[in-house]
Amino acid sequence: MNKYNGLKVLYVGSPPLFSKGASSIHMLKMCQxxxxxxxxxxxxxPGLFSKHKxxxxxxxxxxFKVISIPFTDLFLRQIIHxxxxxxxxxxxxxxxxxxxxxxxxxxxxxxxxxxxxxxxDAHHPAVNxxxxxxxxxxxxxxxxxxxxxxxxxxxxxxxxNFNLDLDKSVVAHNGVDLTDYEDTGDVTELRNELKLPxxxxxxxxxxxxxxxxxxxxxxKAAEKLPDIDFIxxxxxxxxxxxxxxxxxxxxxxxxxxxxxxxxxxVSKYLLASDILxxxxxxxxxxxxxxxxxxxxxxxxxxxYLASGKPIVATDLPxxxxxxxxxxxxxxxxxxxxxxxxxxxxxxxxxxxxxxxxSKKALSDAKNYSWEKRVIRIIxxxxxxxxxxxxxxx
Length: 393
Description:
The protein is α/β, with parallel strands linked by helices. Helices cover 43% and strands 16% of the residues. The chain starts with 7 loop residues before the first strand and ends with a helix. The chain has helices at residues 23-36, 51-58, 77-92, 104-113, 129-139, 152-161, 187-194, 215-224, 237-250, 263-272, 299-307, 337-349, 351-365, 370-380, 383-392, and strands spanning 8-12, 40-46, 65-69, 98-101, 118-122, 144-149, 169-171, 201-206, 228-233, 255-259, 275-278, 311-314, 330-332. The protein folds into two domains: 8-175 and 369-392, Rossmann fold (3-Layer(aba) Sandwich), CATH 3.40.50.2000; 178-367, Glycogen Phosphorylase B (Rossmann fold, 3-Layer(aba) Sandwich). Strand 5, helix 5 (129-139) and strand 6 (144-149) form a beta-alpha-beta unit. The strands form two sheets. It has a seven-stranded parallel beta sheet with strand order 3-2-1-4-5-6-7, sandwiched between helices. The model has no long low-confidence stretch (mean pLDDT 93).
């Protein structure tokens, strides 16, 4: 019997929709995973939009209910949507067991003011003093069910700054929709569709191209490996234009910046490639410029695993929570171009090594489905028992 069957959960999400960020992908995949676990999930989002368009854009295959709150996406989105959603849930949505959110404002109002049982899903440290005050306030509320963290490093950051109960914290790394990688397709057909060369090794980086993502080091590696093609899939054009200029200045014919593609198409690029890279620098940042090497948990890391391709990644604390050198990947020193080049050459010539770490990566991916992440949060925070205690009180 599925112990989650019939559980009623609300997810309050406030990310910009149809954007180039990962937070909206994360939110929709989490809700899809809950639906697949037979949880009765409703997603509350800002603005007006077509549900059909939303699901198609993000490759959502399993249906669930979506509630849109008009005009909460026009300005101060996180604040306005957080406040309005808290009132909406309190006034109109009483038939649920608990709420999950990444919105600090909602979590504060839900736990402290309206006594709504809520889980906060943390993905970065508190960004300012105001955020710290909100977190300290809702962490002491009886309605606060707990906090999930996307990495061990982030959990340690919070424990060092807040008085978190051990039974109210759980590490749940990001995940991957394994169904996106069930049909691997034919590499030749994929390369033809994506207009990629057939007869050359292809190294792929997928994701944002913010400062510290190591794209400049990947360009330097391409310069030293003219017989291998490189492709960057993703990133904002404001960031990519800097790297396009570098590529043009060096007259590199083996380096291609594809730019942003719909998330539903990313798997095709990964499956069409020979080697996948995470060349992160020690100075890796997230969108707002926050240093992130201790806590980043990129969705692409788990997509890389699920693609069953050999991975080369840099030795950052949050990355090696998942990757292990010579087991499911090759780990190299950050900002060391020669080490990156040597590892790519090694995989180029050593088919046995390439196949071995690829097989292990594919096996490990099964531990990081979005469904497994949902289960880690609910079971790790002992939510079912806590909810029964709330009912008794």
